[in-house]
Amino acid sequence: MTIARVLLGASAYFFSGVAASGDVSTYLPVNINPSLERDIERLVVLGNIPNLTKPYSVAVVVRQLETIKNNYPKLYQRLNDGLQPYQSSAGLTHLRATLSDSDDSVAKPNAQGRTTEESIGVSVRGYWQPNGWVALSAGGELTNEQLQVSGSLISLGRSWAQLDIGYKELWLSPFNSSAQMLSAQAQTLPSISLGASAPIEFWLLGVSYAFSVAQMSRQPTLYRDVYSDNKGPLLASVVLQLH
Fold first, then answer.
1. Contact 198, 59 (CB under 8 A)
2. In 88-243, where does DSSP find H-type helix?
3. pLDDT digits over 113-131, tens only?
């Protein structure tokens, strides 16, 4: 058997799996619903879901949910109930109003740049998926200090190659309370990303990948003894997971 035939056979196997891949998927929010997200992290461990990046796609979490139905019935039931709003063609998944008071201005942990000075806030999340190729997600938070549109994006493609454009939350770390590279501590950046919203099954391996480029805000930069903020730097990331 020649090398060409081996490569041809591997390609045919790969693309046959791609042809049968699933629809584009919406995402679960990051640091919005603590109780639901704790249960999802348990499912991630039990179901061997790739966890180097967040947000998790709804499709992967729902698919892996069935694997714990018999052995972890209580966890299954909580997750099944909590994920119901995400499993229709459209839905309002989150609505919350907050009221607080503080004399200090301290950054809230993993709160996308919000501080304790922001005493009044309203946050909302929802989505609409008209077909298997397109999904629109809308979200944000309005406070007495600022407006953020975290979670607002358009998703195009299929599960093996999904293009996301907008304000997609991006957490680069397997840890939950802190991140080694990028977390929810700062405001969500406008970005373009391409990746697999569900692992690609290739022979005995599952492959997940994600490429993203985000636009950072302009900051004073010292260059040749002169400070300039004419351009905002770009933040690029590449993630490849085998499991």
1. yes
2. none
3. 777 777 788 999 999 999 9
